[in-house]
């Protein structure tokens, strides 16, 4: 009896995983098909959903003979571009990006994003800020009303290593909640970003804050490099659904 239950549980969880992956893929394919055009400068986001976007881009570059210059938002994105033989660009030579397609950890009803689950928020925000359009691709679990409704790991904040403790204390004193140093595994050393910094994850408790203001206030603390709050930056979001359709926002 218990063997059958275990087998059913495994089957269920693998089918949930499948539908999540399928949801990421359909959102990514839709965004690439809608926004990538010949000759464009394209910002390549980071994370597992973006892998599908680059896959689709490579297919289109090959079959439609497109010329696209790809500007990465992370070491991971750069590796994806190189692996698919796409044209690698950089902000020095392509400071204006036509469209960036990136993932998100959560998108609220005002299109405010939490980003940085993969620790790439600084370069992601720089590239997004240089982009005419930022398009988010995500599975249905990221589609939210208020930040914190669905994403429970908090708001990532990239900080200069020597300042991480005072920054933790200052954010907790100002806004409450708990600010944790991100570690790859418990009791191990801190996660180090592509820029040699640490990541703090702020487990906030008040979901009704003015996120624009909060992000600016936190950024003024010496040692804070960037926050994972992306306010008024996202042009459009595509959420892949478990049934394989895409919801646009
Ligand atoms: C990395 C990010 C990612 O875009 C975000 O974490 C979403 O990732 P995934 O597509 O794997 O869910 O901000 O810093």
Automatic annotation (TrEMBL):
One of its GO terms (cellular component) is cytoplasm. The keyword Isomerase applies. This is ribose-5-phosphate isomerase. The keyword Transmembrane helix does not apply. Pathway: Carbohydrate degradation; pentose phosphate pathway; D-ribose 5-phosphate from D-ribulose 5-phosphate (non-oxidative stage): step 1/1. GO terms for biological process: D-ribose metabolic process; pentose-phosphate shunt, non-oxidative branch. It comes from Trichoplusia ni (Cabbage looper). Pfam families: Rib_5-P_isom_A (PF06026).
